[in-house]
Amino acid sequence: MIHFEQKKNYKFNDLIEIMTILRKECMWDKEQTHESIRRNFIEETYEVIEAIDDENSTLMCEELGDVMLQVVFHTEIEKEKGSFNIDDVTDGICKKLIYRHPHIFKDTEVSSTIDILRNWEELKKIEKGQKTATDAVASVAKSLPSLIRAEKIQSKAHKVGFDWNDISGAIDKTKEEFYELTQAINGKGDPEEELGDLLFSVVNIARFLKVDSEGALEKTCNKFIERFSYIEKRAKAQGKELQKMSLEEMDELWNEKKDIEKSAKGE
Fold this sequence. Notes:
By secondary structure, the protein is mainly α. Helix content is about 70%, strand content about 0%. The chain is built from 13 helices and no strands. It starts with 11 loop residues before the first helix and ends with a helix.
């Protein structure tokens, strides 16, 4: 056992101290690398998102702590290499916030949030050394979920005028991509490539509608699970097993659930 002061309440610096101790004393923590805990960071971030979606403040507090741990963990690994420490991380983000808010920390005048966002993007380009529109588009992180990445790429292209005038252009393009996918399925093209083009064009429609495509798909996934659960429960009530039911029988229960949902909405 090592000496460590047990407290009723802990502060941020205590977390840093605990992480330093664990990297020295705990066999598992010592073995970890950026690569080995990379997925943890992603999973913890999504758990925060779920807490936000569920409007669960208690869970959000816990999950934000898990994300904070990931930040401290990765920083501790770099501190051991002599690259940077948590003060460097804090210094960097503080300087970035001050630099990108000249309307607060300098005398830049703005009249709307649009001005603020425009300034943010321009300052970001300077900061990142982005000299061309391609630099800005290519800077979108490859590790983002593909739907989010597609929307961000399209938004950056929009800023230099490479975009449809209205949603009708995006819809026509989606129809075209769907046709090309059907052609590829029939042997005239690469199905994977054409499917990617179709998904990209659908994200473009979502952007014109100001709909978060990632969020829209998540809602549909949840809806599917709810309807599938209804099918299984109704089948069980009828003394049937899903594996032995026909698609037509399951579709009938699926549509039954849809009718219930419509009725609840007053449709």
